[in-house]
Structure formats: structure tokens, C-alpha cells
Amino acid sequence: MNRRKTKFPILVLILFKTILPVFAQEQPNYLCGKVDPFWGCDGGNVFVGACSPFGMVRLGPDCPFPTPTSGYQPGKPIIGFSHTHLSGTGGEGRYGNILVSPMVGNPDWKKMASESKNNEKASPGFYSVDLIRNSGVVSAELTANQNIGRHRYKFQKNGATEPYLASILVDLSHTLSRNPKASFKGTKFTASADGSFSGSASFGGGWGGENPYTIFFQGQANIKSSTLSYKLDTLKMPVPKGSKAKPTLKFDTTGFALTGKVENGESIEVTVSISYKNQDETLPAFEKNLNLSFETIQKSAEMAWEDRLSVFSIENDPIEKTQMFFSAVYHTMIMPTDVAGNHPEDQFGEAHFWDLDAFWDTFRTLMPLHNLVYPAQQRRIFHSLVRIGEGKKWLPDAWIAGDFARAKGGCNAEVILSEAVQKGILVGADVNKAWKVCIDNAMNQTDRPELYGRNAEYLKNGFCSSKIKNCTSTSLEYAFNDYSLSLFADKIGKIAESNLLKTRSQKVINLWHPDRKFFWVKDSLNKWVPDFTPGFMKSGHGNGPYFYEGNVWLNQLSAVHLVDSIISLTGGKPAFSARLDSIFSGNHFDIGVEPGFILPYGYMWIGEREKTKNIVHKLLAEKFVIGNKGLPGMDDSGALSSWLVWGYLGIYPLAGTDEYWLIPPYLEKAEINLPGGKKYSVSGKGNALYKNGKIFPGYKIKHSDLISGGTFEWK
Predict the structure, then answer these.
(1) Is 346 helix (H, G, I), strand (E, B) or coil?
(2) Where are the alpha helices (DSSP H) in 90-244?
(3) Which one in 96, 144, 500, 706 has a CA-CA gap of 20 to 30 Å to 178?
(4) How far, in Å, CA of 632 to CA of 53, rounded?
(5) Which of helix, strand or coil describes residue 288?
(6) What is the CB-side half-sphere exposure of residue 51 using CA atoms within 13 A?
(7) pLDDT tens digits, residue range 518-537?
(8) Residue 496 has what DSSP assignment?
């Protein structure tokens, strides 16, 4: 493709703003061929399009509104392909920006959705589908690298023997917000009949609150002899009752279309570069990639994925296990979004990440997984996190589109940074910077507890009362945050601070109901709230008033530093074991929500490793399956996928510490290629663990021992 200079640019300034999918396996010897990007897309909300690891461009299909936050549903038609997406998240939608929709014939903005779709395929860095409309069929192929999206559209019109019209529609107002008419703020762009276009579009709203952002773009479509048309719809926004203001105009669908003649089987390619910083930042990547072939860009993305996936190797396992394992590993690397050099506050090209959504989801299993196998990448994330804390004076629990998003409970960025120091990932001057932002976050009363920091009640009493939404789960998480931060203090010799944090972390035991033998709720007068029920997900308790995505059963081990006390208060080891038994036998467990992740491993504290192994293996066998419905819940940025990865390997991280539990792996044999050239190999199903031929004492291992590698066999 050759980029032509725009001779007559047109400036548009807007002041207001099926068939089941099949994953590609053309190269079965590559690990990319073992990944099914569609795995878990139905219910797990995973992104199914083309991207590179942690890439800023996630180019994929969007279905008609309403959709999950990924923009995609297997059984729905497709309206086009946008360049920004989240993966695995719930709640309000966000992104879905700069949507491109190809069609046979003149542009029809009212019929962007395909009547049906066929031949849907995906592999890491690649997505393809046939869009079927009455006017003809468009075979779409997509690939992407860090901040470039490449589209290739092949057109077919039944019975056509002469060239015919085809159109490329570019919707600059498109968004995945559940309230799309409120999220588009406006656009400024130039477009030309030679296929070139550039500009910016502004958005706000969706997951994380308003969090306004502007996306800058540079594009080129190699459509021949095209004509240019515009879609500039407006609508009148209502005026609140009692207001004397006049109705205001707001733009609905806003964009442009390029229309030219094609022959049957002819392809049109579109290249789009994006940045969140300014127009200039779109140009280097655009110019570097414009003349590269589709296959070259695709191969580059595939090799980036191959490099990340090759950290793991598997032997002697059936294809179903292998596929789910590598699909899960793949899902853990779609988010967060690496926006270094491309975000508004960047001045020096330093590491920066968006869409840390949210640490409440990822601190338990995903962050520890990446700490083990991708420490260099993690170090960049931690640098970004510390700078956010320094600049904003608070650490986020979720960081979306360059601003705070709603905290789900606790201050889990502290857990992540504490773990990084204990495991030697953050060292030197970075440790002192991390300590400063963590201790400030832990000791100062927040003005926005729904976004960051600890609230006044916890700082005073060591727990939150019933007047605070999600009071009990938040109290348990604050307490664990304190404990994890005390380990950070121990590591760097802050003895007084460590003692203070440890003491405060114990106070949440005041929420243990002595008769009910569960963590429960107190009111502001320190009296028990009377409506106790051990029932699973009592109405209203899924997200408040007392627990976030949990209840008295699922939050039993949310403060894992108190497990010994909980065992004693439950009535001792036999009673604690029976309590755990009742969770799994009495329909009181849901692996699809994060507080439950650790519960199968609760038996490890009382030496009943065999029970943990049996339950973990049963969950892996029954709750995770091949196909679109493969995940037992929303993937939450790869959190649920990472739980599977650990279970397959027979390791479980104790988040916020430098320790792991060990059980027999679900795989026959697996190997982890660790940083520094070391290898961790594990196999076997027996009861005794051997390392390098010698009996390994106990079932817990330190991070320093794990990364030293070795051959672990269960005999």
C-alpha cells in the first residue's frame, strides 16, 4: 500500500461533543496454535480480536448494543471492528473506539450490522470472519501490534462480472458504554477521498466513572477512486424539569465513509494508528507500519505471543487440557494496557499502564503469576503504580483511562507492591518510593473511600460498621492489606511501623460472631446486626450491603493472616475441616468470584493436602471446559484464567507474601522456563514430593527456592 498525499483535505469540526467460532490451528507446532481466543467468550466476557501482549490496540468485533464489556457475543451479528477493548470485565462498558465497518454497495449507516456471520476464526494476533449481508459478503481479517491495527477486507457480490461499489464506514462516535448517547463528547477530524484520515475523538463515562479521555488517530484505506461522504447526526438532549435552559444538541452517530469500485475478490486494507497523548504520537508507528504487509504485521504479533507463551511447556497431556492451559495463559496477558509514551501525562516516555481493572481481581493469582514468569514486565507495572501514587497522593485499586475507578474493597495495590519487594522484583531506590506511597495510603484518612485509601471507621476501630457499603468484606481486606504491608516493613527494617500494622490487622477479629462462628456485621454502636443468614448469596449480599461479590461462606479466608485464629474460633482443626467440607458439599462455593479462589487451599493449613488436591482437580475438571462457555464466570482481566494456570501447575501463591502451597499438578508434566535460565519441572500424582530426587519437606515453598528451579516429582 502506498500512502497518497491529501490534495483536498476536508475538515469536520464537531463542537459537541451463526456459526460457532473456530480458532486457528494452521501451525500446530507453534504454541499460538494451541490457544483458543474464543475460550470463555460467552459469559467470561473475554476479548476475541487481534492484539499483542498488553497492547494498546485491541482490534476486534463489536456486536449491536447491548453487549458485554468486550463488545462481542458469539450468536450476534457484527456491526464493525473497533480498536480499543477491555477483556473479561463486568459492570459498565468502556472503549470500543474508532469503529470500521466494511460493506458491499453505498454506505448504509442504518444497516451496519451484518445479517449473519460465518467462518469465524482467531489465533493470537489474528481474527477473521465473513460478514454476510443481502448486498454481498465481506471477508474480514484483522491483525495488530502495540498501537497499529491493520484491516483487510475482501469483497464478494453474487453474480458480479463488472466492478461494483464498496464502502468503508468509519464511526468516530462508537463506544461500548451501556449508555452510548452520553459517552461521545465530540470529534475533530480530516478525511480525504484518497483514503487518508486523521483526527481525534473524545469520550467519557462507562466503567470507572466519567474518566474523560481523547483518542488520536491516523489512518489510511487503499480504496481506489473513492468518494467521501459524512454522517453527522444530531439529537436534542432533554432539559431537566424546572430548568429554563433550552434543549441542547448532541451528536449521535458521527463519522465518514469512503466509497469506490472493486472487483469480486479484491481486497481493501485499512491501517489505523492510535495514541491517547496527541496527534504527533500517532505518526511514527503509522509511518513505520504503513508499507508493511498484513502478513508481516501478523507474524510480528504472533512471535510476540509465542515468546510469552514459551515460558511454559507441557508433555503427555490431551489436547483439551493443553488448549485450555495455553488459552488461560494468553488471557492473562491481554490486560493491562501499556500506554507508555502515549498518555496525556507522559513527558519522558516512562512506563505507564491503564486498565488495571482491578487489583481486587488480580492481586490473588494474576499478579503473582506474572511476578514469577514475567518479572521485567511486572517491574514496569510497579514503576507506573508508584508514580501514580506519588502524583495522585493515593494508590488506585483500579486505574482506567488515566484516572481512578471504583474500589471493590481494600487497598490491594499495597499487597502487590509489598509482594514485589519481598520477592526481590522491586529493589534499590524503588523500594523506598514504594514504601512511601504505601504507608501514606495506609495511614491517612481518605476523602474518597469508594476510590482509594482507608476510611475513618477502619482507622479508628479496625473495622467498618454496617453504614459502610460492603463493610465486612472491606474490613477483612483492609486488615489483610495492613498485614501484607507489615511484611514490607519487616523486609526494610521498619519495626515500629510493622508492629503498628500487625496490631491493627488483628482488630478485624471483632467481626467474628462467637455464636454464628462466621465473620458478620456490627452497627455503628458496636452491636451485631440482627439479620444474619449463612444462606448462599442472600438477596442484596452479592454487592452489598455487607459483602462485595461474596457472603459469610466465601469471605472466610479473606484475611488469610488470621487463619490460625479462625481455626481456633471455629472449634479447632476437625471443626474447621468440617466447615470447609460443608462449603464444597452444600452449594456454598463459587469459583467464579475471587474471594473463593483460596478456599480450596484452606485445608493446607491443617495438613489435609489430599482434600485440597481433590477439590482443585475436581473444579478444574468440571467447571472449566472447552469452548465459548469454558469459564465459570467473568475472567476479570485474566484473574480466573490465572487460577486455572496455578491449579494445572500444582502451585498456589499466598498473595502478599513470598510463599506458595504445593499440590500434585493437574497436568501430567509441565515445565516453567524461569528468568535467569532456570527451569521448574513438575510431574506425578502421588502423596510424597521429591525435589531433584530427594524428599521435599512440607508442602510450602519460598519464592527464592521456587525460582532456583529443579525437578519436582510427586511419587
Answers:
(1) coil
(2) 180-183
(3) 144
(4) 24
(5) helix
(6) 30
(7) 999 999 999 999 988 776 45
(8) H
